[in-house]
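Supplementary Text 2. Reproducibility record for the structural model of the 493-residue chain.

All settings were left at their defaults, and a single model was retained for analysis rather than an ensemble. We include the record here because the model underlies the residue-level annotations in Supplementary Table 4.
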Amino acid sequence: MLTAKVTVDRDFVIDRVDPRLFGGFAEHLGRCIYEGIYEPDHPTADADGFRGDVLALVRELDMPVMRYPGGNFVSGYQWEDGIGPREQRPSRLDLAWKSTEPNLFGTDEFAAWCRKVGTAPMLAVNLGTRGPEDARRLVEYCNHPGGSELSDLRRANGYAEPHGVKLWCLGNEVDGPWQMGHKTATEYGRVACEAAKLMKWTDPSIEMIACGSSHRHMPTFGDWEREVLTHTFDHVDYVSIHTYYGNGEGDTPSFLAKPDSMGEFIDEVVCTADHVAAVRHSRKRIMLSFDEWNVWFRSSNDREKRKIKDWELAPPILEDQYTMEDALVVGGMLITLLNHCDRVKIGCIAQVVNVIAPILTQKGGPAWRQPIFWPLQQASTLGRGTVLRALVDSPKYDCKERAGADLLGLSVVRDDEGGLTLFAVNRSLTEPLAVDLDARSFGAFATASHEVLRHDDLLATNTIDAQSTVVPTTLAAPTVDGGRMTVVGMWCG
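Retained model, structure tokens:
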């Protein structure tokens, strides 16, 4: 049997986990909003038209923050279209996703949904086709208590209390040519700086997120972050970072190793941000908002496969059906986020329902958990506390993605009561992997539980007719001997 040795010490600390690391993302894309979050005719819908079954499942994920309304959608969005009486709201062509947007669900509805879920809204402003004043006006509408044009408009629309939105994204992926209002780093840096100034002058308590690169392989990556932060450094708190991984080549060993690249990506953005701080002789540190991440590759051409016509309302696009293999990679990505919690303070899996999401729904029918639901739920509920810097001696393997990848992916979290949670992924396709844990600095301890997510078929999935094919199982808790413990992780398939 293969064995990895792990040593943890109570004094070897990375940082405390910001709970917002376990956030979500809801965009006006496909069936995320309509038939996902909002379906007034659904049997479980409440008085606001929100699906009760989806509310319950999102609560299970315990997401402290939720990004909205995009994504690519926000770069053409006029937020005023989504407030006030629904019968007076216009339908618009959404150029980002070639869909029709009816604007039946907007900022106020999203804030109300967040309150019911128990999450905090994280709003993105349109810096593609609009500018600083439009962004500032949205802050006034959402956060000013009253006595001004826009705060009184919110009150007239039925929301007497401010929404109190504290996190704001200054646009989305503006470095991408596919984006409405695509800009150079200098063009975006200037408009983002002015937007941040006006928004913070309207509400000094808010935090701002500048757009980083759309992904690590953008030709402007690195230079983009440096130039944008050169302009915005004094006015923003975070820079965004996005990544998606896939296995279109059917190379499972490489797919399982991709979360290691996620860690390198984080390190590179941190280095660039700290370079800007060094040039400015500043002790300020820009943190990271990893506000789009997931596995995504199966649905890239589903518009053609499904014969979806342009300008449909809520077309069923980007509805990846996730597998056990995908859940292992998502688990690895969560481990990477935890192990970088000193600089990554916000994380948003993209997205929360139907669109590349842990939750799927049928119109008028049930909602169910995809395999990737489970690692997210376990990390969110058990990963609160302080991440320890574990010393890992793992067997290696070579793959196309990288040479010498660890078979063991691992993060160790100490909760506020002193308990330890180990999150581990065994990347071996053929053998069990024993984890020999040395935690003697914690004194005598006992194991509380041992949960495993696995399936003999890496392509196993959960469907509307078989919703529990891939679910966690509880195993016998391993024994402890003198501050040491050995846990056996089963092979992947």
